[in-house]
Amino acid sequence: LGKSGTGKELVAREIHVQSKRGSHSFIPIDCPTIPKDLFETELFGYEKGAFTDAKAQKMGRIELAHQGTLFLDEIADLPLALQAKLLRFLETSEFFRIGGTRTVKVNARILASTNQQLSKLVAEGRFREDLFYRLQVVVIQLPDLKERGDDIKMLAQHFLAEINTRKGTTRELSKEQVQMLLSHDWPGNVRELKNVMESFSVMEEFPLSIKKSTDFNKSYKEARIKAIESFERAYIKKALENNQHNITRTAKEIGISREELSRKIKKLNL
What we know:
mainly alpha; 7 strands
């Protein structure tokens, strides 16, 4: 259980990898993205001749997960009509391919995820109560990123290290930048953090959304100083680039002394 972007599929994959089934297949099904009229064939497969275009037998996702793990991502979006058939498989480990007359037996671990309250959906008649209780054997609740404290710093550094390796860059986070990350609410959770680090690797600064959320947690005086520093950094960086990083020419262009510009370059870590 967890909100979008908290890493539910990553946890599911790690459970699979660390288990005795780790050498077998991990088969994910992204429930919201599969059209309802194709869901049953995706899940259970079909026999040759089951319908007009069934030119050959096709194994479904459940069968492909034999000896491994079947991961039902965002199971709350599973069509109600299919929930009964899934429940039957969970109870018996058997199913019929579409158009088939012989049962297929599969040994697979079933993991499911959702960002919704299934108990509420059960009360509204949108999710089967018996399937809800059948799935609720072991529950793992993933916290929002904003509740994970220093994990934010660890994850940010992890993502940045991956990006540096991939791009051949050497980006690093300053103490102030880490504090900005810790102050943000992260409505998009880990997925948002990963995207922010991708942006940082290109721009060398955070998106405006991160700056805004951080500045409103500061006093007016602190926020004002931060805003001025941010403006100066961007302005001076651009001026230096325009003058091929010649400090004397840049200082003359922006109207300050060479010594003052040198101090600002050092202070702003340019």
